[in-house]
């Protein structure tokens, strides 16, 4: 697939600190999530699938909005109504023609038109880090 890529962020295989984790409390207990291993979150109504960089995914009975609030201090960005991505695993993006991102697992995800300006702003800040 030949997309005109505006900017390319390559995945850096540096070691992440596994101590940066968060605990999500569910109705029947708690689940520990290592934030550095989350690739993206996809909302499905009142549930959210958390996709990890190793290909696994888990279903949580929390909304995507709750995950956005939980991960707001980290490098996550909501790019559409149902998708929250980890910017550290962003491989490439296109904001010229079809508004999309490509993650390190080669998955292409569309960016909502209304979130384009916020996406570009966040990418500028993120690339300066």
Short description:
The protein is 16% helix and 40% strand.
What does this structure look like?
- The protein has helices spanning about 65-70, 115-129; strands spanning about 5-10, 20-25, 30-35, 40-45, 45-50, 55-60, 75-80, 85, 90-95, 100-105, 110.
- The chain is globular and about 45 Å long.
- It has a 5-stranded antiparallel beta sheet with strand order 6-5-4-8-7. Strands 1-9-10-11 form a 4-stranded antiparallel beta sheet, with no helix packed on it. A two-stranded antiparallel ribbon has the order 2-3.
- Mean pLDDT is about 80; it is low at about 1-20.
- A hairpin with a 2-residue loop joins strand 2 and strand 3.
- The protein has 2 helices and 11 strands.
- It has a single domain, classed as OB fold (Dihydrolipoamide Acetyltransferase, E2P) (Beta Barrel).
- The protein is an alpha+beta fold and about 130 residues long.
- Helix content is about 15%, strand content about 40%.
- The chain starts with 6 loop residues before the first strand and ends with a helix.
Spell out the blueprint of helices and strands.
Layout: E1 7-8, E2 21-26, E3 29-34, E4 38-44, E5 47-52, E6 57-60, H1 64-70, E7 76-80, E8 83-86, E9 90-94, E10 100-103, E11 108-110, H2 116-128
Antiparallel strand pairs: 1-9, 2-3, 4-5, 4-8, 5-6, 7-8, 9-10, 10-11
